[in-house]
Structures are given as C-alpha cells and as structure tokens.
Amino acid sequence: MSDAVLGIIGGSGIYDLPGLEDAQWISVESPWGTPSDQVRIGTIDGLKIVFLPRHGRGHVYSPTTINYRANIDVMKRCGVTDLLSVSACGSLKEEHEPGMFVLVDQFIDRTIAREKSFFGTGCVAHVSMATPVSPKLVDAVAAAAEAEGLKYHKGGTYLAMEGPQFSSLAESELYRTWNCDVIGMTNMPEAKLAREAEISYATVAMVTDYDSWHPDHGEVDIQAILKVLHDNAANAQRLVARVAKDLPREHQSCPAGSDTALEFALMTAPEKRDPELVAKLDAVAGRVLNRS
Length: 292
Ligand SMILES: CSC[C@H]1O[C@H](OP(=O)(O)O)[C@H](O)[C@@H]1O
Ligand SMILES: Nc1ncnc2[nH]cnc12
Known about the structure:
7 helices; binds adenine; binds ligand LNRAV4D5; globular; Rossmann fold
C-alpha cells in the first residue's frame, strides 16, 4: 500500500488551514479547467496535507459554478489518497443541532446543473456509489471528534440541492419525509468524482441552521449561518488537525472499494476510445488506462 496523503476541501467559512507545517500555496493545472484556487500543501506530524478552499479564497464560486472535476483532478495529481470534505449544512432533524458535526454516510443527489463525471463519449465508465464514503475514514473522523470532545453524530444522509437559493418549506418537509439528515449544496458531484478518481472520501457536515422546516427557527438566515460557522471554525480546525495526527501513515485500503473503483468500470473498447478524453484522464484513471 502507498503512503497516505490527506486532502481537505474546506467549505463555506474555511479558506485556509492553520497549523500546517512548511505550507505553501501552489498552482496545479488540470486538463479539466480551472480549480477553485491554488492548493495549500504542507504537513502535520509528517503527513502530507493538500488543502483546497472549495469556493476559492474570498468565496468566488457558487455551488453551481465550482469546477468539481478540476478540484478532484488536482487532488489526484497531488497524490491524495484520502479526502475529507468539510461542509456547512442545514439540519433536517431536531437532534442535529447547529454547531454539531454530522459524519454523513449517504447522499441523495438533487443537483441538476453540474458536470458529474470524468467519463463520457469515447470513454464510458460506471462506478458503484452504493457506499459513497470510506468507512475507515469516517471511523478516523469519529475517533478524532471523540478525542477532541466535539458533539458529533456518526451516519446520516446528506441531501445535495442545486441552490444557490435555500429550500422552500415544502421542499424542506419533503426531504424530511425521505429521512434525510442534513442538506447542503456541494457534496454532489464531489463525492461521485472522488469515487471515479479512486480517492477515499468522507464528509464532515457542520450544522449551521434548521433549514426552512423548523417552526421555532424561522427561515434560513445567512447572517445566522455565518455566525455559527465563525463560532465553530476553531472546532473544525481542531477536528481536522486531530484526524491528520492520528491517521495511519500508510493508506488504509477502503472496504467500500474506493481504491479499485475503476477496476472493472470501463466499458468502451480500447480501439474505440477517444484519445483526447483518454489524455485528460491521465491522473484520474491512469492506473487502469495505462496497463497493457
Ligand atoms: C454559506 S450557506 C450556503 C453554502 O454553504 C455550504 O457550502 P459548503 O458545502 O461549501 O460548506 C452550502 O453547500 C452552500 O454552498
Ligand atoms: N439550509 C441549508 N441548505 C443548503 N445549504 C446549506 N448550507 C448551510 N445551510 C444550508
């Protein structure tokens, strides 16, 4: 097995990662277009960390205009084996209170205006998303949250909506009938693309509000969200730092198959493959495309 490299995608309110040693902002080019920002590469206790602010420094990109393919491709090019997404979200259940961390294990993808795959005409592939997060990485985050004394809940379904507007009351109530736990705008297609790139993925969903459904909490209010994010930023940073300190230095193979997702996924006959697309897939799918 290879050395572990921990990628962190920081969501709303998280545009840097204090505590990185020997850290530098570095530009990484991607054939998939422009990533959200440079990556900040450094180490924590000898573990290589690659940090990318999902919306860019200064919050430039909306959930719809983020180039998720470029972001994941850049992570792969930097050698990331394990990717932690840190994301603000609304709560769809009373017990997930603002300030808590929900360690999501399922997603429902309701986004409609994004590129969702690295593959397509000239190189078709189908990967499994039955278990979209890496159980070992989730365990590592849960252990870190426990060690840091943070309020967290292990497991839960994240509803990914297109946005950028928040949900109507009817939508919020519908998602509650689907037994969803939290709602956000960014973890899809991010999780799908990480799986295509054979990167183990997990989400720390930071609850910032009760979305639109809660009779005692009224409408979603961005000012209130920002306050929770601000008050919780230090906790999120402590959590990430602890994950980094305790993560095994050798990448742990993913029981959900993240490391080998492409093993039997390619459908297009070698002689029918589009060389241009194949060239763009060098980082994401080089492992399976380059073998004879
Ligand atoms: C700041 S509220 C809405 C915004 O926050 C979340 O972003 P992220 O997942 O990157 O933390 C949510 O998905 C929306 O994009
Ligand atoms: N209620 C909500 N809906 C969607 N994305 C969010 N991000 C934070 N709160 C949210």
